[in-house]
Structure formats: C-alpha cells, structure tokens
Amino acid sequence: MSVLLSVRDLSIRIGAATPVDNVSFDVKSGEMLGIVGESGSGKSLSLRALLQLLPPQASTGGTAVWQGQDLLAMAPADIRRVRGREIAMIFQEPMTALDPVLTIGKQIVESLDVHLGLRGAVARKRAVELLDLVGIPDAKRRLGNYPHEFSGGMRQRAMIAIALAAEPKLLLADEPTTALDVTIQDQILALLLRLKDELAMSVILVTHDLGIVAGTCDRVAVMYAGRIMESGPVYPVFRTPAHAYTLGLMRSVPDRAHARQPLAFIPGTPPDPGAMPPGCRFAPRCGFAAAMCSAAPPPLADIGEDHQSSCLRAEDVGRVVREAA
Amino acid sequence: MSGILVADDLTRSFPGRRGFAGLLSGSARPLVRALNGVSLELARGETLAIVGESGCGKSTLARALVRLIDVDGGQISFEGTDVRRLSGADLQRYNRRVQMIFQDPYGSLNPRMTVGQILEEGLQVHDMVPAAQRAARVGELLSLVRLPADAAGRLPHEFSGGQRQRIAIARALSIEPDVLIADEIVSALDVSVQAQILNLLLDLQSRLGLAILFVSHDLRVVRHLAHRVAIMYLGRVVEVGQADDVFDRPRHPYTRALLRAAPAMEPPLPGVPRVRRSAALVGELPSPLAIPNGCPFHPRCPEAIDRCSVEVPRVNIDENRQMATCHLLG
C-alpha cells in the first residue's frame, strides 16, 4: 500500500508548553489509522495541525507531506484548497460544527459549490445522493431541515455527507461517536467503514476508546503526553504490546474473564504540559522505569514489521506479556 | 430475596416543551414519560447495574430513589418503610443511609469549600461524630479513598477529575450509608483513572457491605462491577437478571442488540481482512415524547411480530429468575 500522508517530527508549541512533541506517523491509502490516547495526550491537536486549524498562539514544527507538499508549510490560500477538497474533517459535536441557521441542504450545496463548482439543480441532485449515501432516509425532504430538527446521530451523518461532498482522499475524524449512544455509535462506525471502502478513502480516527480502535482500525498510534508511545498494526499492539504505557492502558480496561477482580490501573496522573518529565514522559508513572528512562526522550524505534515503540524496557514488557498469556 | 431498597411500579412524567405552533394553538404541553412502571429490587451488599441509552429513564430512577424528584405513582420502600411518606427527621435518616454520587465531579463539589469542610459538613448535619473528633474522621475518610492526608486543606480545583470523584465518594461514605446510588460516576474519566475508581468501589463494597445501584451506559464497566443487571428502554425495564446470565444469554432482543453494538476489545487476526458487518440496530432512538404503542422497542426490533405494536408485553421470568418483557418469550 502506498503512503498517502507522511508526518515527521510534528511538534506543537503553545507558550512554554509542547503539548505535541516529535510525532511521526504514516497514513497508507485505503487504511483506517487510529490515534488513541487519554485526555490531554495531544491526539486532537495533532489532527487539527494537519489542516492548520490550530489556535493562532500555537506554532508547529516538523513536516506533513501530502502529494509532495508540506501541509504545515503551505500558504493560507493553498491549504484552503486542500481543506475540505482533498482532506476533510468531522468533529465530536456536530451541533457546533453545523451552521444552525442554514438548512442541511444549503450547507451541502455550499460545500459542493466551493469545492467542485457545482450549482443549481445539479448540486441539489448531488446533495440528495450524498444524504442517501450516509443513510438518511427520505433524503429529498430532509434537505430542507435545519440541524436542530435532526437527532445527534442524524447530525453526525449530515456532517459526514458535507465532508464527503468533494470526495476527499483522507477523512480526519475527531472522536466522531463520543457524544452518541451505543447503538447509534455502532451505526456511525459501520457507516464510516462502508464509506472508506466504497470511496477508497483513508481515515484517521482519533478516539479514547480502545474498543473502537479494535473494531474499526487497521493500524493504531498510541499517544501519551504529546508523544507517540507505540504504533503498529492493531493486532500486535493489542495482543503483544511493546510499550509499558500500552500494556498499562490495556490492563486498565475491564475484561470479562476477570469480572469483580481488581484492575491493574496506572498510578498517578498525566504530567502537566508546562512541566513535562525530561526523559520518557511516562517514566514517573511507569512500573518498568529504570534510570535510563529519565535521561533523554527515547526515540520511536522499529521493533517488528511495521511496528514501532519508544519504550526502552520493551523487551521486559514483552516478557511480562508472554508470561501472562 | 428481600431487597433493602425496593421500587414498585414507579411512574414519572415531565411536561415537555411546546413548539411555537403549540403555544399559539394553546394545545396541552406534551408529556415526557421518563418512568413507565419500573419495578426493581436492590439486595443488601450487591451491585445492581442499570443500563440504557439516552431517555431510558435511568437517571430519573436514580434521582427518584433518593427523593431528589418525586414520582407520580408507585412505591419505594427501604427496609419495609414507605420512602415516599417520609418527612422531617425520618427523611433525614433515610438520606443518611442512601447516598447519591453524580457523574460530574466538577459540578458536584462546592468550589469555595476545602475538601476538609466538604467532608465535615455531612458529619455535622447528621451529627455523626463529636466536633473534636471530626478532623480525625476526615483523615480516615481520605485514606479510605486513597487521597493524601494534606488534601483536607485544599480546594476542589486543585484536584484532577479522578481525585475529585474520590472526594465525592468519600463525602458519600462519610455518613456511613447502606446504599450508594452512583449515576454514571466513571463516564467522564479516562480509562486508567476509571480503573482506579472501579477498584475502589469493589474494595469498599467488600469491606463495608455496601449495596450499590450503579447507573451506566458502559457495558464493559457494568460487566466488571455488577452482580445483577437491569436493562432499561424508554422508561421501562426490559430485562433483569444475574450479570453472567444477561451478558451470556440475553433474552430480550434489545439486550442482544446492545451487546452486539458495544465495541469489543477484539482486533481481527493479522492478515485476515476485517469482516464488515451491518449495524446492530437500525433506526433512531424514539423521542420520549412519543413512545411507541405496544412494546416500546418494536419499531427498531429486528424480530418484531404484529402483536408487538399493539400489546405491551408481559413480564416473563425463566428458571434462572431472569426477567424479560418480550412477546417472543410467550
């Protein structure tokens, strides 16, 4: 599979803090990449940086190469041409992302006009097709509805329809189902998987839910305190984690075989973005930490096929995983 | 089994909002039926989980049980006494023995009071320990929920979300309740912090013999914590049973759909293409303003028959005492 987007050493600085530090990952064509992490891990900021959607006080470093060009260095006029047309984005709360005073139809038609120059009857016909595509019944009539007339799940479908108007090659999805009920979340995830295949797009799915990653993603990057701790295909990362943080995260999730038994939680709390530990940012909470872990930031190193870890104790973590199996 | 806290046929409606047309025509305000005949029993020392999606009435039920809201009909009894008739000192005693913890650890603690003052308030109101011993009791409570002793002098904003939820738990436990009503108390927490709170609840239950009514939408957490599970849908309990039975042998089609929809921690094997499956349930959650006739689940139910849209299904209890309300069960 060819690499569609290649992010190298992405850093985000806001004042004295570096909430995202030296983040590198690739997105291959047709794949769904999960970026998983707890609150404050920098997963959403990293996603927004790709389309230059960060607040003005933030500055970025590193590169994000897309079709031979660096997204982070593009002039405003150039990134606008990429945004929405080649790379589209959907958000957690569709009610705030949709314009409350415009009908859903108007918002889709607007997107078709800006990105593809479609207007009038042609645009309206395409808008109906798009609503159909995302599974909104009675699409023709629903075009005249306002966002508040839609339920949460329908709004998320409408937002996906707007994002897909220009048939982007990459969809950035920032916690798209977090605000939804379980059965509606399941519908939206099934929809994203179907559209990814039908439209041959790639998706970056940012989530805090490991179950969603297991159920939808091909590869995953695990973030903690602004850095990627481990990345690789979903199966090995879940079954044979090679980073102490990934192992801690997996063990924090209740598992049916151990109901009502104590969970192996991670002690302490994540570091303050203004005062990050000097070495591995997880070291102060890590049961595996040794002196070397606090010396310098460990690099993300290859440890297997397409599998990277920044854990200096990866071998010991692996031994613990094998012994537990 | 005799429950310590028993709800019998609870009903509660709220007036909904009228649209502009409704205002002009002066039509009656629509009714949201939040509880529509809910009966449940919580036994001493057990965890009963209440599971359901938005609008199922799970939070209304929790609030009704601690009398934060009144029910329109039905009975609530605590150790055989009628909770709805309690007033004055009796109500205060009930409030001491049945405590509630809320979802939002930011909104439920007074930001101007120190943690020590927050924990002492209940001791004082319920006259639990002499004034001279209150500080020592606060220290005990903090160590019970594994917070440092110096936490007593600090304000809530100095703590993380997980720590605040511990403070809320310590406050609820300060007056030695028999029953905890926990409304989505780990939903806003990250998974590593959530694990700490779940461990704490398990530990406290085994040490203090607490009965816990645990309201949650997270099936993974519920399976971990609950002895018994009740599934609610649009104001009704559709299934109740032992946790293992409900999770392994669900009897109601809604329970089956809910279990199928919940993300599992099982990634596909390497080299095996992901099998794309259709969603577990089609359709939207109906508005609680317009609950479907018959079985409220029938418009979304993949197994619905003609009878389901007309007749409310009766309670069916099997040999494991697993209750479900579905016409397909006979």
Biggest sheet layout of chain A: 8 strands, mixed
Strand order of the largest sheet of chain A: 6-7-8-3-9-10-12-11
- Number of DSSP E strands of chain B: 12
Number of strands of chain A: 12
Main sheet characteristics of chain B: 8 strands, mixed
Mean pLDDT of chain B: 92
SSE string of chain B, helix = H, strand = E?
A: EHEEHEEHEHHHEHEHEEHHEE
* Large-scale geometry of chain A: globular
Q: Into which percent range does the helicity of residues of chain A fall?
A: 25-40%
Folded structure, characterized:
The complex is a heterodimer of chains A (325) and B (330). Chain A has an eight-stranded mixed β-sheet with strand order 6-7-8-3-9-10-12-11, with helices on both faces. A four-stranded antiparallel β-sheet of chain A has the order 2-1-4-5, with helices on one face. Among the domains of chain A are: 101-158, no CATH class; 240-324, no CATH class. Chain A contains twelve helices and twelve strands. Chain A has helices spanning 43-50, 76-82, 94-97, 104-116, 120-133, 139-142, 152-164, 182-198, 210-216, 234-239, 244-252, 314-324, and strands at residues 3-14, 17-28, 32-36, 58-66, 69-70, 87-90, 170-174, 202-207, 219-224, 227-233, 301-304, 307-309. Helix content of chain A is 35%, strand content 23%. Chain A is an alpha/beta fold. Chain A is globular, with a radius of gyration of 21 Å. Chain B is α/β, with parallel strands linked by helices. Chain B has a domain at 44-65 and 86-263 and 279-292: P-loop containing nucleotide triphosphate hydrolases (Rossmann fold). Helix content of chain B is 30%, strand content 21%. Chain B contains ten helices and twelve strands. Chain B has helices spanning 20-25, 58-65, 88-97, 115-125, 134-144, 161-174, 191-208, 219-225, 243-248, 253-261, and strands at 5-15, 31-42, 47-51, 73-78, 81-82, 98-101, 179-183, 211-216, 228-233, 236-242, 315-317, 323-325. In chain B, the strands form two sheets. In chain B, strands 6-7-8-3-9-10-12-11 form an eight-stranded mixed β-sheet, with helices on both faces. In chain B, strands 2-1-4-5 form a four-stranded antiparallel β-sheet, covered by helices on one side. The longest helix of chain B has 18 residues, at 191-208. Chain B is globular. Chains A and B meet through helix 8, helix 9, helix 10 and helix 11 of A and helix 7, helix 8 and helix 10 of B.
